[in-house]
Design goal:
Immunoglobulin-like; 18% strand; binds 1-deoxynojirimycin; 20 helices; 27% helix; globular; alpha/beta; 717 residues
Length: 717
């Protein structure tokens, strides 16, 4: 199929149709699809519907086949529809939510989950997934941190890239692979006060050094599509932002990824006050480089008029349509329009035993042990009281898991019972007011109180921001009760964002499990009974109080930093009523083993821009308990033209250590690991001191100073 020839056969109207994405119910009234957004009636006729280019959300193979068949019967040129959907952390086999996945610090896991998601979703005839979400997130009030890989650009980049590779694998033309659509371009995670869809206002240097990095890494990994964000950037809505869509994406990054608006976000430029009407919006979008319009019809209704009036050059339209047709071709849809959709393959592959087994393995690596006063692991002989909103709940899939069926999951109560744990009391009470005196007597009969606490899955995700990020509904009163009864208290958290845990710090152990997916509770059981050793690390800081937000490890130093030596001064960058540090920092996560770091060595102390530095460090498991450790390497650039973060993650390795084993871990660093971007997006570096820090988290590290030589500062020239 020569797409240039095909393009020539299309009328302007037909070309514009290729740029429209509609939900399946437009094609067939009986079909429902989960879409996140205001469903407006689109004022589109039957002809317009059967000229559109792609579909948003489809439930299974038979629906896809039905819609595609009907479309091809009516569409004059028989150009197949492309089916896109939000397959975020699994199709029917649900994996940990992205923030949990990032907690594994194991990029192979991201690859593997994306692979399985692609294999399963492709049986429904889905061709493109709206994943990964590469948005950097520093504000836990924002509900969508659950979909993110956290606050670090490098970690988010590594995970985004691995997801892209996992989905696209060895080529999107092959059955079982999906094209990846990175989102939301750009800086959506910087919405003010964490209120979803709110204003974003970031500097160019923050943009290039923080926010853009993870999208770029995903694009470099070959992502085929890019979705725009709902927010403004420099005052211009991302969906019509020429700087983002042309200068950054096309000119600087040399990407030919198909761009797509977010749900209705083109029409929303009117609400932003950046277009007079839909015609103006269509004009600004095509000039800016937006290809596909999702769920609004500015292009369909006005682009032809704009071309006929000579206001828009038809070349701009052709460029966009060619990119869409090329993607359809690359997906192999002209040869097989029903590609992948198969009821038989669906039965064989979806939620297979093998996939569920991997889901559990991933869950085991994604939980983070935040605190442990040697209470964990538990002993099977201990009598347990199991209380809290997640004691009997099967709702462990988390947001964006619309194909996952929670009735297949097991509750904690079921898993405890299946393992013959002596439960003196089980209750889904959320707080002390829901417990009777008799209940308290039953709790007293236990040795350990396991509290399954957290947020309902609907408290995080799109449009679900919170201003108070404590545990809801006074769940902390359960901790206080158990402690007042002199019980050991283990808290298991189910939630989609870092929470303010200050009022449950009395508990003896806290295991952060986020939403771990289809096999969550079985994995949690193995972790708390020591059949597996926790190894997750936090991809995002947990604040001491909401008033500290945003609190993130890779902050700038300020001109009046608080240090160990100046605590008595008054005029410092600090709060009067709370420490500067978070409650749990980025990279924190405990193990049942204890790891010691020693012998940090570097190949040279002075280096130039062509040097590859080799670093080595010994990591010893001082315990008898085998386990994973995440060895983290941070840098600090002390002198630069712009202020640089006090710490930046540059490398990490997840290693396995048997009891008493020592391993030498080696990292290589080159100038690209030590450079930064100026406000035009150019890579740059300055001579002077750098500190390399290696350790088990972002706060406890062994350090070494090195010097970059041979680059002159301006004052020396
Ligand atoms: C809106 C969300 O912002 C986006 O992430 C999602 O992919 C689209 N809706 C499509 O469902």
């Amino acid at each position: 199929m020569k797409i240039d020839n095909l393009l020539k056969q299309l009328t302007t109207k037909e070309k514009i149709g290729q740029l429209l994405q509609l939900a399946p119910f437009y094609f067939d009234i009986d079909l429902k699809a989960e879409v996140a957004g205001r469903i407006r009636s689109l004022n589109i006729d039957r002809e317009g519907i059967f000229m559109s280019g792609s579909v948003l959300g489809i439930s299974n193979a038979s629906e896809m086949i039905k819609v595609q068949q009907k479309y091809l019967d009516i569409n004059k040129h028989k150009i197949p529809l492309m089916f896109m959907a939000d397959i975020i952390h699994g199709y029917e086999t649900i994996f940990p939510v992205p923030i949990a996945l990032a907690s594994s610090f194991n990029p192979l896991i991201a690859f593997q989950t994306a692979r399985i998601s692609a294999i399963e979703a492709s049986t429904a005839g889905i061709h493109v997934t709206f994943s990964p979400m590469a948005d950097l997130s520093r504000d836990p009030r924002w509900g969508r941190v659950v979909e993110s890989f956290g606050e670090d650009p490098y970690l988010a980049g590594v995970f985004s890239a691995q997801m892209v590779k996992g989905y696209q694998n060895e080529g999107i033309e092959k059955i079982g692979n999906l094209a990846a659509c990175v989102k939301h371009f750009a800086a959506y995670g910087a919405s003010e006060a964490g209120r979803d869809y709110n204003t974003v206002d970031v500097s160019k240097t923050a943009l290039y050094n923080m926010y853009l990095k993870s999208y770029k890494t995903a694009i470099d990994a070959g992502a085929k599509m890019m979705m725009t964000a709902f927010n403004v950037l420099d005052g211009v809505p991302a969906t019509i932002n020429k700087y983002l869509l042309r200068t950054v994406l096309r000119d600087q990054w040399k990407s030919d990824a198909v761009t797509i608006s977010d749900y209705d976000s083109l029409k929303q430029v009117l609400d932003h006050g950046c277009a007079e009407n839909e015609k103006d919006a269509a004009y600004r979008a095509i000039q800016a480089g937006l290809d596909i319009e999702m769920a609004s019809v500015c292009y369909v209704n006005y682009l032809e008029e704009l071309i006929d009036e000579g206001i828009v050059d038809i070349k701009k339209l052709d460029e966009a349509v060619l990119r869409v047709l090329q993607l359809k071709k690359d997906l192999g849809l002209f040869e097989d329009s029903f590609k992948g959709a198969s009821i038989d393959r669906e039965k064989e592959l979806v939620r297979s035993k093998e996939h569920l087994k991997i889901s559990k393995k991933v869950a085991l690596e994604s939980a983070v042990l935040l605190k442990n006063e040697q209470t964990l692991p538990l002993n099977k002989k201990q009598k347990i009281a199991l209380i809290g909103p997640y004691a009997k709940s099967k709702s462990t899939n988390g947001p964006w898991s619309w194909h996952g069926k929670i009735e297949h999951n097991l509750s904690l109560e079921e898993v405890f019972s299946n393992n013959n744990i002596n439960l003196t009391f089980v209750s889904d009470a959320e707080n002390i007011d829901q417990l009777s005196q008799q209940n308290i007597t039953q709790i007293e009969a236990s040795e350990v109180v396991v509290l399954a606490l957290g947020e309902d899955a609907r408290l995080s995700g799109e449009a679900h921001s919170r201003s108070d990020i404590k545990l809801p509904n006074h769940q902390d009163t359960l901790v206080k009760l158990a402690r007042s009864l002199n019980k050991e208290v283990v808290v298991i958290l189910f939630n989609g964002r870092p929470l303010d845990l200050s009022n449950i710090m009395d508990s003896n152990a806290i295991l952060e499990t986020w939403f771990l997916g289809s096999r969550a509770t079985e994995a949690i059981f193995d972790l708390i009974y020591g059949h597996a050793n926790p190894s997750g690390k936090l991809p995002m800081s947990f604040p001491r109080t909401v008033g500290q937000i945003p609190v993130y490890y890779n902050h700038l130093n300020t001109g009046r930093p608080l240090t160990d030596n100046n605590q008595n001064y008054e005029y410092l960058s600090r709060f009067l009523d709370v420490e500067n540090t978070p409650l749990f920092s980025f990279g924190h996560g405990l193990s049942y083993a204890s790891f010691k770091y020693s012998d940090l060595e570097i190949s040279q102390i002075e280096f130039d821009i062509d040097t590859t530095l080799r670093l080595s460090i010994n990591v010893t498991n001082e315990s008898q308990i085998p386990g994973h450790e995440v060895v983290q390497l941070y840098i600090r650039d002390h002198v630069a033209k712009i202020s640089r973060p006090v710490k930046e993650l540059k490398k990490f390795k997840k290693i396995w250590l048997e009891g008493k084993q020592t391993q030498t871990v080696v990292f290589e660093l080159d100038i690209h690991d030590l450079s930064y971007f100026d406000s035009n997006g150019n890579e740059t570096y300055d001579s002077g001191k750098f500190t390399i820090m290696v350790g088990s988290n972002s706060q406890e590290t062994l350090n070494i100073d090195i010097w970059l030589k041979g680059v002159k500062h301006d004052y020396q020239k």
